[in-house]
Amino acid sequence: MLGNEVKTEPPLCAAWRPTGRPKRVIPPAGAWDMHAHLVGPATTQSATRLFTAPEATVHDYIGLLDQLGIQHGMIVQPTVHGHDHHILLNGLRAYPSRLSGVAVVNAEMAPAELDLLRDAGVIGARLFDIYGDGAAMADLESIATLCAERGWFLQLAGPGRLYPLLEARLASLRLPVVIDHLGWMDLTDGATGGILDCLLRLVRYDHVYLKLSALNRLSKQGPPFADVVPLARSLIDVAPEQILWGSDWPHIGLPDATPGTEAVLDFLADCTCNARQELILVHNPRKLFRATKDARP
């Protein structure tokens, strides 16, 4: 440490709140929450993290699923844990019949490490481009190859402006691709038209899926997220068989109060009918899982 430089701790984000029962959506048997995180104590979180997330254990998450009436969950490696997958792996091993996982990988990871993730229940890999300029996607095709070799899908997260940059590359991939958080569009930037058009084209491909998740990160109004409904409806109407749903629990990285997760599930009632809700919660996840296995060389 030089001179009087003082090391500052990353800011603590808002704690997750207990979840009530959904009032408008009754999940059908076999429903999936396709996006949640497990978080270990602050001492286990990455030294380079941008914030400190409150602990959220696998037992907390199973309690949430039971409260919502959902059987299965997809645990996505959070940014606060970087490439240290111990919390994820322990969670998957604790509930192998209910949980699967998405890891954060890079092209240099040893095959043995990737196989360890697969054997514990990981079935997807996530690439995160925080700046949306495409630089973090330089290894897109090589990561896609690693995924296809193991029967995984590829999951992408980044600002909406990222997807027009990647459209041709994503369209040409030969494995399932999942786009997080409704494409993470800024509903106030006036640029949603071109980005939305891009997403509407992408979800017409059988191998591209789009996830209704992180509503609180998109909405400027909060629950019941009425300002996000038109966007969600437009995507569901074009490709109802390509839409997934995720709670984004425990809603990490928010400086203010987190939403009740039941409101995120009830959002579906404003977007589509019961039959399509069953597609989104049950049949589309199953279709994705079948497609990952079919994509193996």
From TrEMBL:
Domain of life: Bacteria
GO MF term list: hydrolase activity
InterPro entries: Amidohydro-rel, Aro_Compnd_Degr_Hydrolases, Metal_Hydrolase
UniProt xrefs under PANTHER family: BARREL METAL-DEPENDENT HYDROLASE, PUTATIVE (AFU_ORTHOLOGUE AFUA_1G16240)-RELATED (PTHR35563)
Pfam families tied to this protein: Amidohydro_2
Chain ranges of the Amidohydrolase-related domain: 32-290
Coiled coil: none
Protein name: GntR family transcriptional regulator
